[in-house]
Amino acid sequence: MPIPDYATLSVALYFLLLIAIGVYAMKTSTADNSEYLLGGRKVSAKVTALSAGASDMSGWMLMGLPGAAYVSGLDSIWLALGLVVGAYVNYQLVAPKLRVFTEVADDALTIPEFFSKRFAKENARVRLVSSLVIILFFTVYTASGLVAGGKLFQSAFAMDYQVGVIITVGVVVLYTMLGGFLAVSVSDFVQGIIMLIALIAVPVFTLQQLDMQTTWNDSQILAGLDWSTVQWVTAFSLFTWGLGYFGQPHIIVRFMAINTHHNIPKAKNIGISWMTISIIGALLTGIIGAKFIAQSSQSLNDPETIFIFLSQFLFHPFVAGWFLAAILAAIMSTISSQLLVSSSSLVEDVYKHYTRKPPEDKELLFVSRACVLVVAVIASLIAMDATSSVLSLVSNAWAGFGAAFGPLVLLSLWWKRLTHAGALTGIVVGATTVLLWANVPVLDGGETLSSLFYELLPGFILSLVATIWVSLKTAEPKQQALDWLQETEQLVQSDNQH
Predict the structure, then answer these.
(1) What membrane topology term does the record carry (predicted)?
(2) Four-way CATH pick for 5-391: 1.20.1730.10, 1.10.10.10, 3.40.190.10, 3.40.50.150
């Protein structure tokens, strides 16, 4: 059923807020491409934390994960645990060194540029290859967010799915093109707060409704879950999602933009707390929502719309409008981050180094904004299929980045013997493994290997082994690269001692 006009108005006001943020950021932080792509490395700890979390979770937090919990109950907890552990370890192992190294190494602005500078090469082949991987997987990843947006408008506003996709991408592109990284980060901060409130309120209020309708008690929430039949291979497969954090460009670029590496611990505490509460809320939304549907004799065609259904069915339309805005917040925060990272790779790592003459700042800014639009259009075309699954598209892109970049990011910061040839090999092996594992029908019935085990772990392991093996067989890296790494270690260790 369509929600009343004044609830629609609350969503429209939310859109206006995002555009206002974009205008503000355009006036304060787009003087050059460095500010447009990385906010001038002036982002605070709290904005970094919620921006990383909001851009990480996307539409799957309010649609994909509740939908999975709706179908499989507490079995989905393994995915949630893997993500929390992975995010925490990412803050520990990657954030401090990445922030310091990218500034020490001639102010690297993008992840591909970081890979190139790690070997003291301005235009190494690893830079171009990693840029192509980013563009490939982020186009799919962005499409997943647009699918979530299309489903939202179709379910809540009775709009055509394709119209919902167009509205979603239109608003995101507008504020991202206007304000760049600062607009994306500040909007992510606001969106993270909205998401947190919604993920606490919806399951709590739903549980209260169940108490009023039935003789309900806590043990009934777990009814039907047979812990003795849990498939531990499946559980471990879900848990390995956490490995993906080390290679997600739209998340780790936040570490590069924080105002100082001294604020990383503060950002970690804020970010992990936000993430833990939000994931618990998402799981409970699906589990309690399934009970509510059964008890109230309602019907739900798509499990991934359980949050939308509960918001509409249980809350005043004005409140429901803001809860729908929470889904839009989750969707748009990730899409905007992905568009900006894709744009930065196209401009800084491809266009800037393959033009005949060095482009001026104004030209780079123009091309950066144009690239945001181009990637958005391609992703929109992919997302026009209304049967697409949000969680399926996210899982493919997440695994691709995790396997292609995860081992390389860790080894770049923690292993001095890493070589350019090893890095290049690892990216290719990781990305290829994920694509083959997830798409080639080698099992009976045309099933892929991903039906047995999530493609991230095999891709991660093979990439790690290939990177190390080739590095040991090739010449040691340049002294300049080792000096940058040594300086990074000294600065981080000095900070830890104090």
Answers:
(1) Multi-pass membrane protein
(2) 1.20.1730.10
Condensed to tens digits (0 to 9), the pLDDT of residues 289-310 reads 888 888 887 778 888 788 888 8
Q: What letter represents residue 310's amino acid?
A: L
pLDDT above 70 as % of the chain? 89
DSSP state of 477: P
What are the residue boundaries of the structural domains of the chain, listed by start?
5-391
Evaluate whether 127 touches 405 at the Cβ level (below 8 Å). Answer: no
Q: What percent of the chain has pLDDT over 90?
A: 21
Q: What DSSP character marks residue 258?
A: B
CB 46 within 8 A of CB 267: yes
3-state class (DSSP) for residue 43: strand
Helix residue ranges per DSSP H, 76-160: 77-93, 95-104, 111-117, 125-157
Judge contact between 255 and 35, C-beta under 8 A: no
Instruction: Name the token pair of 439.
Output: 């798409």
Burial 432-445 (b: 16+ CB within 10 A, else e): bbbbebbeeeeeee
> For residue 223, what pLDDT band results from cuts at 50, 70 and 90?
very low
Instruction: Flag whether the pTM goes above 0.85.
Output: no
Q: Residue 102 region, left (φ>0) first, then alpha (ψ -120 to 50), else beta?
A: alpha
